[in-house]
């Protein structure tokens, strides 16, 4: 009896760094997030920014899904991302909006934020699990230190973590999404495998996007990886980096966190 062969994308071993894979992901990101996260966190970030005021910095702004709506509520948002492909998409989104001029995009690594003219910031936003793209403790330490360096004293650091990643079941090549892309696009299918490294707390998604348009078929494969720390450990890392914890929330409307919460949101204040 032969075991079924397990096809792994060539880039699997390339997900050694949390920023790997995002350039490849960029052309599919908005299509996928429209069907998954949608805009459920956006109002939360808009309300927080309106309460605290700008200037605001977003870590890992990607295609501008959060930065642009936040720019409706404050006059200056700086979005930092390492992926030039994601930033290209953010740029075209900004061009289509009257609030676009309020957003400045900067290519950079959140572990070593560049000195930015618009800072120091009143609010740093880390939406949709961006801190889980830091695969080693050292990466997290450097990022927290870097954020403390660009925030005003008393400034707020808002962090949204994706809680379900460590409990995600492992599977091989499952069709997890299938839909048309836009009116002129083809049929897009996402075939996904999930691996868990429980010792390191790392969840890896091996993704293959297959597009069929008429007789043409194209395939794009890449891997992205995330590391999840418990709320307790994250609080501890923040406190060591010079932040006081202001609140831990369990949803986007402000309910207090508990161990079954569907969202893990930490609001910390720079000492
Ligand atoms: C989950 S996406 C989030 C994008 C956007 N914040 C949103 O909510 O739609 C994560 C983004 O973080 C970026 N990223 C990952 N590691 C990074 C790093 N070390 N420095 C800067 N950007 C990073 C990726 O390029 C990607 O655009």
TrEMBL record:
<feature type="domain" description="Methyltransferase">
    <location>
        <begin position="56"/>
        <end position="155"/>
    </location>
</feature>
<dbReference type="GO" id="GO:0008168">
    <property type="term" value="F:methyltransferase activity"/>
</dbReference>
<keyword id="KW-0808">Transferase</keyword>
<keyword id="KW-0949">S-adenosyl-L-methionine</keyword>
<dbReference type="Pfam" id="PF13649">
    <property type="entry name" value="Methyltransf_25"/>
</dbReference>
<keyword id="KW-0489">Methyltransferase</keyword>
<dbReference type="InterPro" id="IPR029063">
    <property type="entry name" value="SAM-dependent_MTases_sf"/>
</dbReference>
<dbReference type="GO" id="GO:0032259">
    <property type="term" value="P:methylation"/>
</dbReference>
<dbReference type="InterPro" id="IPR041698">
    <property type="entry name" value="Methyltransf_25"/>
</dbReference>
<protein>
    <recommendedName>
        <fullName>Methyltransferase domain-containing protein</fullName>
    </recommendedName>
</protein>
């Amino acid at each position: 009896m032969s075991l079924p062969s397990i096809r792994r994308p060539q880039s699997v071993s390339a997900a050694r760094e949390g920023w790997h894979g995002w350039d490849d992901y960029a052309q599919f990101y908005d299509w996928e997030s429209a069907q998954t996260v949608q805009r459920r966190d956006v109002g939360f970030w808009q309300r927080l920014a309106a309460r605290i005021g700008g200037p605001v910095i977003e870590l890992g702004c990607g295609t501008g899904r959060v930065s642009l709506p936040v720019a409706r509520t404050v006059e200056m948002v700086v979005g930092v991302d390492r992926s030039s492909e994601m930033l290209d998409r953010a740029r075209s989104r900004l061009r289509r909006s009257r609030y676009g001029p309020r957003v400045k995009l900067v290519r950079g690594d959140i572990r070593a934020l560049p000195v930015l003219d618009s800072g120091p910031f009143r609010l740093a936003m880390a939406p949709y699990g961006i801190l889980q793209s830091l695969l080693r403790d050292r990466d997290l330490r450097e990022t927290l230190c870097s954020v403390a360096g660009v925030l005003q004293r008393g400034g707020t650091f808002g962090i949204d973590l994706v809680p379900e990643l460590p409990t995600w079941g492992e599977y091989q090549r499952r069709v997890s999404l299938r839909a048309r892309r836009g009116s002129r696009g083809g049929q897009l299918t996402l075939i996904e495998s999930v691996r868990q490294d429980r010792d390191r707390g790392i969840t890896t998604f091996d993704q293959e996007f297959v597009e069929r348009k008429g007789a043409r078929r194209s395939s794009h494969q890449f891997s992205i990886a995330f590391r999840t720390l418990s709320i307790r450990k994250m609080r501890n890392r923040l406190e060591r980096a010079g932040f006081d914890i202001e609140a831990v929330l369990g949803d986007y409307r402000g309910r207090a966190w508990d161990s079954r919460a569907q969202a893990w949101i930490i609001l910390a204040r720079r000492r």
